[in-house]
Amino acid sequence: MKKHQLLVAIGLLTGTFINGQDPVIMTINDRQVKKSEFEAVYKKNNGKDSPQAQSVKEYVDLFSLFKSKVFEAESLGLDTLRTFREELAGYRRQLASPYLTDKNTNESLITEAYERMKQEVLTSHILVRVDENALPKDTLEAWTRISLIRDAVLGKYPTAAEITNYEKLLRNSSEVAKLLKGKDSSLYKIKLNAIKNLQSAATSETDKFAGIAPKTSDDPSVLDRKGELPWFSVFDMVYPFESAAFKTPVGEVSPIVRTRFGYHIVKVHDRRINRGEVQVAHIMVKFSKTASDQEKANAKTKIDEIYAKLKQGQDFESLARQFSDDKQTADRGGVMAPFKSGRWPKAFEDASFALKANNEYSEPVMTPYGWHILKRMDLKVPGSFNDVKNELKNRVAKDSRSQMGRSALIARVKKENNFKENLKNRDELLKVLDSTYLKATWKADRASKLGNKEMFNLAGKSYTQMDFAKFMETQMTFRPGPADYNDLLTRMYTTWVNESVVAYEDGQLEKKYTDFANLYREYRDGILLFDLTDQKVWGKAIKDTAGLREFYEKNKGNYLWEERADVTTYKCLNDKVAKEVRKMLKAGKKTKEILEAVNKSSQLNVSVEDVTYLKGENKNIDANWKEGLAEKDVIDAKENKVLVIVVNKVMPKSPKTIAECRGPVTADYQSWLDKEWLAYLRAKYKVSVNQEVLNTVK
Question: Are residues 219 and 323 both part of a single domain?
Answer without folding.
Answer: no
